[in-house]
Amino acid sequence: MTDTAKTGLALLREPFPAHQISKLPKPTKKDAPKGKCNECGGWHGLPAVHLDYVGHAALTDRLLDADPAWSWEPLALSPEGLPVLDPFGGMWIKLTVCGITRLGYGDAEGKSGGNAIKELIGDALRNAAMRFGAALDLWHKGDLHRDDEDDQPKQARPPAANSAVQQGDVSPKARAMRLAAGVATGDAVGAAAAAASWDQALIDEVWKHLDAKTADALNAAWPKDEAA
User: Fold this and answer.
1) String of b and e for 109-139 (b: at least 16 CB within 10 Å)?
2) Cβ atoms within 10 Å of 38's Cβ, excluding its own
3) Is 11 inside any structural domain?
4) Which phi and psi angles does 27 have, rounded to 5°?
5) Is the pLDDT of residue 75 over 50?
6) I want to staple 58 with a disulfide (CB 3.0 to 4.6 A). Which of 20, 36, 37, 78 is the partner?
7) pLDDT tens for residues 52-69?
8) How far apart are CA 184 and CA 102, in angstroms?
C-alpha cells in the first residue's frame, strides 16, 4: 500500500480534506448591507455566496509534504530589496516545488497595511500552487476528472435546457439553469432581477449550481438599491 502513496508534485494534485477547506463569503452586490451570516457565522455584506478555498496554512502544509525545500520569491525587487508591486497593487511571484518553477499572481483587493501584504502573499501562493494542480478542483466549478462516459447524459445540459428543466420545476438546480440560459442569451439584467426577488437561502442554494462565468455576469448585473 505504501507504494501507492502520492509524493512530490503528484501529492499537490490530491484533493484537500474537508477540514482544510474554508469558506470565503462574496456579497452578491456592491455596497451590500452587512449583517450576521447564518451560513458561516461571519459579519459581512448580505446577501452573499460562499466560495470554497484553501487557506495559507493548509497550502503551506501541503507544500512542505510535497517538497520540504519548496520556496517562493517575488518576480522583481526594488533597489531596497523589497518586493515590487504592480500598478494595480498586486505582486507576481515565482514558486519553486521539486525543482520546477511557475509564476503566480496575488493581490489584497484594495486593502493596505501589514495584514494586506500577508494576504497578498497568501493569494499569490494559492494562485501559483494552482499552476501545479493544488486545489484545482476548488478553482473549477465542474468535475475535472469525471469520465467522458459520465458526461454523456449531462452534456445536453446547456443547449437542451427545455428537456432538462421541466415546466414548473422550481428546484435550485432548475432555477440555476434558467439563469444560465438567460445570461447566455444576453439577458443578464433580467436574470439578475428575477434572482434578486428570492430570499437569501434560495439564492445561496441556486448559486451552488452556477458556473463562475454565469455567477460573475449576474453579480455585475445585480439591481442596485434604490433606497437613496
Assistant:
1) eeeeeeeebebbbbbbbbbbbbbbebbbbbb
2) 10
3) no
4) -55, 145
5) yes
6) 20
7) 888 889 999 999 999 999
8) 34
For the chain, the first-to-last Cα distance in angstroms comes to 65
CATH number at residue 63: 3.30.160.20
Gap between the Cα atoms of 146 and 155, Å rounded:
12
Q: Which residues contact 66 (CB under 8 A, 6 or more apart)?
A: 7, 8, 9, 11, 12, 97, 98
The rounded mean pLDDT for the chain is: 81
Does this model's pTM top 0.70?
no
Question: How much helix, strand and coil, in percent to the nearest 5, is found in the chain?
Answer: 40, 20, 40
* Contact in structure between 125 and 134 (CB atoms under 8 Å): no
What is the signed CA dihedral for 170, 174, 179, 183, rounded to 10 degrees? -150
In a domain, 46, yes or no: no
Paired with 24 in beta bridges are: 51
Print the domain residue range for 126.
55-139
Q: How far apart are CA 80 and CA 144, in angstroms?
A: 43
